[in-house]
Amino acid sequence: PVRPGCPVTPSHPSPRRGRPCERVMAASKPVEATGGGGGGGGGTGLSRWQLALVLGAPILLGAGALYLLLAWRSKKGRKVCQGRARLDIRKRFSPQRMMEPWNRLHGEASPLDRAQAAKNKGNKYFKAGKYEQAIQCYTEAISLCPPEKNLDLSTFYQNRAAAYEQLQKWTEVAQDCTKAVELNPKYVKALFRRAKAHEKLDNKKECLEDVTAVCILEAFQNQQSMLLADKVLKLLGKEKAKEKYKNREPLMPSPQFIKSYFSSFTDDIISQPLLKGEKSDEDKDKEGEASEVKENSGYLRAKQYMEEENYDKIISESTKEIEAKGKYMAEALLLRATFYLLIGNANAAKPDLDQVISMEDANVKLRANALIKRGSMYMQQQQPVLSTQDFNMAADIDPQNADVYHHRGQLKILLDQIEEAVEDFDECIRLRPDSALAQAQKCFALYRQAYTGNSPLSVQAAMKGFEDVIKKFPKCAEGYALYAQALTDQQQFGKADEMYDKCIDLEPDNATTYVHKGLLQLQWKQDLDKGLELISKAIEIDNKCDFAYETMGTIEVQRGNLDKAIEMFNKAINLAKSEMEMAHLYSLCDAAYAQTEVAKKYGLKPPTL
Q1: Residue 273's pLDDT is what?
Q2: Disordered: where is this region (predicted)?
């Protein structure tokens, strides 16, 4: 479940995106009675007035019975007894009630006392590891306990569930915990034990519901329940994402996202503008280049559509080039694979990338680019070994390719191999001194290393590095954005806000920057309205920005608007670009849904901002 008070930083592999109700008082746990015996004689510990009271009770009760009997015989008494105030003599003066003082005096226990004694005996067996005998004692306690003693009875069921748990009888554990919760709906110990039993029985939905209730009752302070909630949410997310991603409809991302993606490459042949001799027939008259048009191919048409931002036609035109085995077959394979990746169809992209990589006679830049993209795909699929192998192979076949080191540096950051990441960024900068993006990301890597290493001097040096980068490359929006994140970490909120403003000035159509600026307002000024206004602006700019929907959903959870949060998460799920992202979003959505179910079932309100 999403906890309030924590920074709202949803998960995403990019450093710019970062990585994911206040208190509900838990109901008091049922107090387990310790049992207690009376006793007779001088050793009972009863004071004189207590003894007098006990001994005198039968006499007083006898006098009261006699009074009522006389009253009944009188006419007036009969009317009184027949009225609404008539006492039930049989109930009030039952043999059991009249013998209670006598039983207490002579050590004869009540049913509840005997039940507590059986429970205490069961506890001794439990501590000795004799769980079968403990179960027998707890069963006896349950049978002896008066049915109106809900809290005591719930404790006996919960204790028996604990013994069943030691024997790994998970069905019995769940059943007894259910009875305990029916008797005491906010019994945290029983809810958590049932959650663990449901986990063992692979009842993930029921497990999540129980552990969510525990988290809310304990105000999200218990590490064990939080870990179990996180575990089951991830399992549910993976299951749902696997099924959804397999059957999802391909969706082309926004033009801004596509342009941003290609801008991260400098040696990518397929993203370069068309040469004059490659212009299609449609453009030759306008530009007076009829004599330079040599041919018309599917790949060249795809490139032209790319320049026109008509991205939906690129895959089909590339396919025509591939089927015709034309001159630009390798380029067409790489271009088609790239757009398969952009629409989230990694299964279709991989064969094309494999084929380009295996073409030893193809341009080495094409093969290296294919390796970079396949390596990035493997990283999204959480296969870091295969990813590292592809990047290393790209460096071997094209050691002068700056893109290899830039993207491998990003991989190393994700793997928390900061020193190696810095080395790769340095090599990228050596090959391309004008690479503002690599220099900004190197600063971010150094900052992370200093921040996690708790080195104030190194942090100061990294912050100065950011200042140098934005001074040297004042048109690099990424430099301002990464610097703003570091400033936010250092709680220099005003300056961070200025950096985001400069980033927006350079890239007014970058929805992600608006989301980060909105989050800053929440952290800095607790200005919920301003934060939501900026995130809404991001959605207005790019209605395919899954990060904006995800962040909006996270905020709505913390506001207590769970239905709205679920709506936002579902929109983000439909826009997710990888199965891993989708699994993360399903986890957030399931957490919100579980809180709504718990609220209805137990009358609990999740903490809010």
Answers
A1: 83
A2: 1-22
Give how far the C-alpha of residue 278 lies from the chain's centroid of Cα atoms, to the nearest Å: 49
What whole-number percentage of the chain has pLDDT above 90? 70
Separation of alpha carbons 204 and 234, rounded Å: 10
Tokens 């900026």 appear where? Answer: 534
In a domain, 90, yes or no: no
Could you give the 3-state DSSP secondary structure of residue 601? Answer: helix
Residue with tokens 């509900």: 24
Radius of gyration of the chain (CA): 36
Instruction: Let me know if residue 149 belongs to a domain.
Output: yes
DSSP 219: T
Location of structure tokens 């992600």: 512
Q: How many Cβ atoms from other residues are within 10 Å of residue 308's Cβ?
A: 9
Distance CA 278, CA 290 (A): 11
Output the CA–CA distances (angstroms, integers) from residue 295 to 103, 282, 303, 328, in the order listed: 109, 12, 14, 11
Q: Identify whether 157 is part of a domain.
A: yes
CA distance 594 to 212: 7
Contact 341/377 with Cβ under 8 angstroms? yes
Neighbours of 275 (CB within 10 A): 10
Is the Cβ–Cβ distance between 587 and 539 less than 8 Å? no
Check: pTM over 0.70? Answer yes or no.
Answer: yes
CA pair distance 453, 58, nearest whole angstrom:
79
DSSP characters for 424-439? HHHHHHHH-TT-HHHH
Domain that holds residue 304: 252-271+297-398
CB 331 within 8 A of CB 366: yes
- Among 347, 379, 398, the domain-final residue is 398
State the DSSP string of 228-263: HHHHHHHHHHHHHHHHHHHHPPP----HHHHHHHHT
Answer whether 341's CB lies under 8 Å from 329's CB.
Answer: no
Number of domains in the chain: 2
Q: Are 11 and 19 in contact (CB under 8 A)?
A: yes
Q: Give the three-class secondary structure for 288.
A: coil
Q: Which pair of tokens denotes residue 1?
A: 């479940």
Range with the poorest average pLDDT among 75-89, 180-194, 423-437: 75-89
Q: What is the CATH number of the domain that holds 350?
A: 1.25.40
Q: Return the ∠ at Cα 600 (arms to 607 and 531), rounded to 5°.
A: 35
Nearest to 162 by CA among 199, 127, 205, 213: 127
**Any residues with CB less than 8 A from the CB of 322 and at least 6 apart, and which?**
298, 329, 332, 333, 336
Gap between the Cα atoms of 549 and 542, Å rounded: 11
Average pLDDT over residues 74-95: 45
**Chain centroid, CA 28 distance in Å:** 28
- pLDDT the model gives residue 272: 87
| pLDDT tens track for 416-455 | 999 999 999 999 999 999 999 999 999 999 999 999 888 9
Please tell me the total number of residues recorded for the chain in this structure: 609
Whether 95 has a pLDDT exceeding 80, the answer reads: no
pLDDT digits (tens, 9 = 90+) for 120-166: 999 999 999 999 999 999 999 999 999 999 999 999 999 999 999 99
